Amino acid sequence: MDELQSRTIALRSLKHDKGLKVHFAEFPNLIIWSTLNKGPFITFEPWSGLSTFLEEGDHLEDKKNVCLLEANQVEELGFEIEVL
User: Fold this and answer.
1) Which of 19, 46, 76, 77 has its CA 20 to 30 A from that of 29?
2) Which InterPro entries match (predicted)?
3) Per-residue model confidence as pLDDT tens digits over 29-78
4) Residues near 17 by Cβ (< 8 Å), separated by ≥ 6?
5) Which residue from 65, 61, 74 is spatially nearest to 31, judged by alpha carbons?
6) Are 48 and 31 in contact (CB under 8 A)?
């Protein structure tokens, strides 16, 4: 997901009043996935870049939303997980 309207996502159980909320204000993208065999989990991953699109080349600098750093440059990104 790369055109997000929010930088927060929540997941609540249908069986009880438990859940998680992930706040990822510093990340432009969110990846949501699970296993093909209906595994007992779902994963939220804030990303600062995206995988290769069909119309992109294989060069890192051409990737959508990628954050390129100069030599010795450091950037720290963070997110919060809130237990509901």
Assistant:
1) 19
2) GH-type_carb-bd (IPR014718)
3) 898 888 888 778 888 899 887 776 677 777 777 777 788 889 999 999 99
4) 84
5) 65
6) no
* Cα–Cα dist 17/12, whole Å: 7
Using an 8 Å Cβ cutoff, are 41 and 22 in contact? no
pLDDT in tens, 49-62: 777 667 777 777 77
Residues contacting residue 27 through CB under 8 Å, at least 6 positions apart: 7, 46, 47, 48, 77, 79
DSSP string, 23-74: E-TT-SEEEEE--TT--S--EEEEESS-PPPTTS-S-GGGSTT-----TT--
Tokens encoding 11: 């997941």
Q: In one letter, which amino acid is 2?
A: D
